[in-house]
């Protein structure tokens, strides 16, 4: 079981917040019950909702005096809450008050969990159940309870997302997230795509969830892959990339060619896209188009890929419409995590077969295309066909 280290004060604030908001969340059929519970009790003695409102009024008055003493305030309203339950066993506020009235935390948690099973829509009861399950370190049940709360009250996402986020830091919770946050409620996608994706400490487990079921859209997938890579978690990023592009990978392995796809950088291509210095795939995806104005230069395209077995050749065609600059385009290979390339060679116009005889002992390499045009030269416009890796 995961140990949830949320400060108790946080839960007290959440529970208190839920209790204070309760009056705005429930609607009763008898307006006189809400406006004047004492009158309703006198006029219709079996009206459990009237006693419930009277108990809640008594509880609220005490809480206003001492917000920290929820147990004492609930004790003052206990008799009225019991009367409410005697007339209507489903009165949610009364159940919550009776649970809060128990001075022993274990008894309080047990009462809250039992009451929450009678009413899974009431925010106060579910908040008390959440407190109990956090205290008992029942992680799966915490996730289930939060799902029940946010299905009915999605506006409380700001208060409860941090609790879910802390749970998601533990890999053991992933099966529970897959089970309960299955996309059947709009808040599920919002939590994954807007909250979890933005937090580096959650991305690795988020990737595991993504490999079990769809989450968000292609933009979400791309941001998750690139986010993992930026976090330095290249192994998780590559596993997710391979999962997302497994059909394309199968074709690539058969031909040995590296497509100019840029869907999932850094394991697909990351192109520089500036007005006077840019690389882009051609419309049919068969070539990389380079455009470099004088005075511009640097990395124009790069990607990370698995290190091939050496020796190998990089074979492609470089079509240069401005042959004076043909030698100002070069390919560099660098182990990920390193700064100095272990291989660098300028391109020539036409067929290129770059022989890589040996490489350092690393699992992944950065394949970088550099381009540069010095001031006074003409603008570079050239194309590179798909690069093929050929083992020797």
Write the layout of secondary structure elements.
Blueprint: H1 8-25, H2 31-35, H3 37-43, H4 48-65, H5 70-76, H6 78-87, H7 92-100, H8 105-118, H9 123-135, H10 139-152, H11 157-168, H12 174-180, H13 186-195, H14 200-210, H15 218-230, H16 234-244, H17 246-255, E1 257-258, E2 270-271, E3 273-274, E4 277-281, E5 287-292, E6 296-306, E7 312-320, E8 329-335, E9 343-346, E10 350-356, E11 364-373, E12 380-385, E13 387-391
Antiparallel strand pairs: 1-13, 2-6, 3-4, 4-5, 5-12, 6-11, 7-10, 7-12, 7-13, 8-9, 8-11
Helix pairs in contact: 1-9, 3-4, 4-5, 4-6, 4-7, 5-7, 6-7, 7-8, 8-9, 9-10, 10-11, 12-14, 14-15, 15-16
Task: Please characterize this protein's 3D structure.
By secondary structure, the chain is of the alpha+beta class. The chain is built from 17 helices and 13 strands. Strands 1, 3, 4, 5, 7, 10, 12 and 13 form an eight-stranded antiparallel sheet that branches. Strands 2-6-11-8-9 form a five-stranded antiparallel sheet, with no helix packed on it. A hairpin with a 2-residue loop joins strand 3 (273-274) and strand 4. The longest helix has 18 residues, at 8-25. Residues 1-10, 18-37, 39-46 and 249-255 have low confidence and may be disordered.
Task: Label this structure with key terms.
single chain, alpha+beta, 5-stranded antiparallel sheet, 17 helices, disordered N terminus
Count of DSSP strands:
13
Gyration radius, in Å: 31 Å
Percent of residues in helices comes to 40-55%
Low-confidence region ranges = 1-10, 18-37, 39-46, 249-255
Give the overall average pLDDT.
81
Taking the sheet with the most strands, its summary is: 8 strands, antiparallel
Strand content: 15-25%
What is the molecular shape? elongated
């Amino acid at each position: 079981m995961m140990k949830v280290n949320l400060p108790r004060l946080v839960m007290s604030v959440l529970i208190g917040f839920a209790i204070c908001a309760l009056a705005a969340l429930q609607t009763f059929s008898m307006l006189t019950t809400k406006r004047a519970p004492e009158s309703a009790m006198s006029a219709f003695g079996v009206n459990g909702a009237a006693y419930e409102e009277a108990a809640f009024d008594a509880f609220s008055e005490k809480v206003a005096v001492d917000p920290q003493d929820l147990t004492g305030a609930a004790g003052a309203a206990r008799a009225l809450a019991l009367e409410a339950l005697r007339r209507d066993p489903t009165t949610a506020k009364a159940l919550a008050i009776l649970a809060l009235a128990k001075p022993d935390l274990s008894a309080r948690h047990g009462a809250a969990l039992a009451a929450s099973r009678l009413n899974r829509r009431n925010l106060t009861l579910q908040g008390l159940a959440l407190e109990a399950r956090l205290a008992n370190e029942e992680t799966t049940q915490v996730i289930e309870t939060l799902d029940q709360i946010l299905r009915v009250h999605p506006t409380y996402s700001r208060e409860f997302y941090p609790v879910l986020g802390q749970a998601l830091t533990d890999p053991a919770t992933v099966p529970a997230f897959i089970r309960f946050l299955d996309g059947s409620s709009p808040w599920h996608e919002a939590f994954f795509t807007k909250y979890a994706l933005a937090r580096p400490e959650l991305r690795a487990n988020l990737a595991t969830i993504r490999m079990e079921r769809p989450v968000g859209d292609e933009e979400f997938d791309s941001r998750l892959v690139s986010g993992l890579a930026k976090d330095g978690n290249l192994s998780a990023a590559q596993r997710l990339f391979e999962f997302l592009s497994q059909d394309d990978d199968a074709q690539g392995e058969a031909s040995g060619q590296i497509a100019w796809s840029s869907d999932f950088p850094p394991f697909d291509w990351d192109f520089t896209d500036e007005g006077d210095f840019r690389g882009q795939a051609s419309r049919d995806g068969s070539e990389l188009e380079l455009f470099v104005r004088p005075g511009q230069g640097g990395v124009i395209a790069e990607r990370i890929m698995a290190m091939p077995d050496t020796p190998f050749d990089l074979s492609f065609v470089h079509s240069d419409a401005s042959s004076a600059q043909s030698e100002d385009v070069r390919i560099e290979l660098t182990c990920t995590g390193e700064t100095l390339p272990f291989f660098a060679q300028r391109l020539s116009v036409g067929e290129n077969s770059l022989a890589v005889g040996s490489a350092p002992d690393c699992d992944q390499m950065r394949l970088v295309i550099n381009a540069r045009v010095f001031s006074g030269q003409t603008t570079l416009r050239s194309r590179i066909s798909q690069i093929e890796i050929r083992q020797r």
